[in-house]
Structures are given as C-alpha cells and as structure tokens.
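Entry type: protein chain
Record version: 2
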Amino acid sequence: MTPSSTGTSESDLEAIAENAERAVARITEAKADISRIIFGQDKVVEQSLVTILAGGHGLLVGVPGLAKTKLVETLGTVLGLNARRIQFTPDLMPSDILGAEVMEQSADGSRAFRFIPGPVFSQLLMADEINRASPRTQSALLQAMQEYHVTVAGHPHDLPRPFHVLATQNPLEQEGTYPLPEAQLDRFLMQIDVHYPDLEAERRILLETTGADQAVAQTAMSAEELAEYQQLVRRMPVGESVVNAILQLVRAARPPEGEASGNAITSLIAWGPGPRASQALMLTVRARALVEGRLAPSVDDVLALAEPILQHRMALTFAARADGHTVRDVIARVKEKVG
C-alpha cells in the first residue's frame, strides 16, 4: 500500500492493513455462507455486499423469481442484521412505513400519545416492488434513507445503525406503477441488475432447492463488526490513479456545458451524474477491494462498478434514444476512454 493524497501516515497504513486482513477473512466467510443459499448470482451477491459495506442502499432490478427476496433475507441473517420486509402496494401510506402515534389511556384516566415504530426501524429493510407505492409513500422512505431519522407528529426518531435499504423493482409490469423520479433514484448507491442464472446454476437450483433438505443461512458476523468494517472502508487509502480514473469517468458521462461539444459521446447525454456519483465510486471501489480479498482498490474496480453506479444517474437525449442508443452502451464507451 502507498499513502494516498489524503496524507495517511505510515503507522496508520500499517494499522489499516492489519484490520483489513481480519476484515477480508470475515467477509470471505460471509460471502461463502451466502453462496450456499443463493446460486448463480455471484455478481449480484458481490454488489449487494459492496453496497452494504460502503454504507449505502441498493436498488435490485429484475424479473420475478430470481431470488431477490431470498437474497435480502440471507444477507440479514449472515451479516447479523435485524431484517424486515415491506410489500409496497398503491394503498400503502407513509405511516405504514414510518410508524404512528396512538393515544393511550392509563388506569387513572390520563391520556398520552405513544409512538409505535414502523418497519423502517430495522437494520436491513427490503422494500419489495417500491415502484408500486404512491410518490408520497416513496418520498417518506427515501427521506428516511437520506437523513437516517423520521419525524412523526413533529418528533424526530433516529433509525437504528447500521441502516440499509435494498429495494426491488420489477421492470416488466409498468401499469399501475409509479416509477421513481430520477432525482430520487440518486439516493440509491447502486442499481443492481439481477439476470437469469446460467445453465449450470439453474441445474443446481433445481437439485438443491426442491428436496426435503435445504441449506439454512448461518450468522457469520454481528452488526457491530459490520459497522467496524464500514468505518475501515472509509479509512482505506486510495491511490492517485484511482482518484483520477473516478473523476475522468464521472465527468466524461456528463453533457457538455456552455457551448456545444464536438464529443460524440457527451452529445448523446441529456443529464449526467453529479458529485454524489464520484463519492459513491470512492466508497464502493474500497469495499469491492475488501470483498475480493485485496487491501487497496485499483482502476479495474472503478471500471467494474461504473455501470451499477452511473446507470440510474444519467439519461440520454430523445434523439439518442430514437437512434437506438442505451445508457449502458454510452457507459461502455465512456469506460473505454478511462481504461
């Protein structure tokens, strides 16, 4: 490891390296436990772990039946987190998520309000089919995600820490849904695309999940340990080459400012990622290094995380979409400039 531009001292680097080696062993154990339950979704498991280690929230996008709910349940057990689930529906109200104050009468006849916490008061919350809820309910959850507290009847209530939301979204059924606005999508650290498993993975799913005996998730770490590893991620040094790659990538994914640009890529972009995307990359490249057993991130981590970090933070012009361009294609072309 070499000191980064943040001026980390040599003694601090040695302490970080020692802690990182212990963290790598524990995270590798947790990853193996998850892989015993979730088959054929190694990339999704890795990105979900990276999201949580980086202290953020994830948006899981995929068709039904790809073990998204099972993944969140397994993550909660393995990481020692108190996990809860909300099934989003059009009639769901903000109070159904945040909680509400109810009036109680004591034996002596006096009355007082008591706050009953909603399911958001958990350490790992699964927001199932978040795009089915009304914008008002979506906003209540997204505000809690951003501020880590809720306000009910004028009284603030802190959420437990760590606190993470893994929301799912079905890309097929759009009738009767309320797609998340682009500004609110930015609250999610990553968009994690869940694809169909390959042939061998699906064969294993058939054989191991339809019998009398099924694998059960085991706790691999505690919430306190996870919180320590999240702080470790923020202390890990980042080389100058990685910082430059992040800046180059994010800035290349923005539309031209001022006069028109002759750049063929930026002319396709209507709006692009802001500084929050750069911050997300700075955290997730460190977390990915830990998940993969390394003590420092590389430029390859930046390129690997470009799509899940950027794809929900940018949009193409109408002309670009009419010509058949997609956000993923544009990100791939931007990565070529960095790589």
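Comment: The chain has two domains: 1-91+119-236, 238-339.
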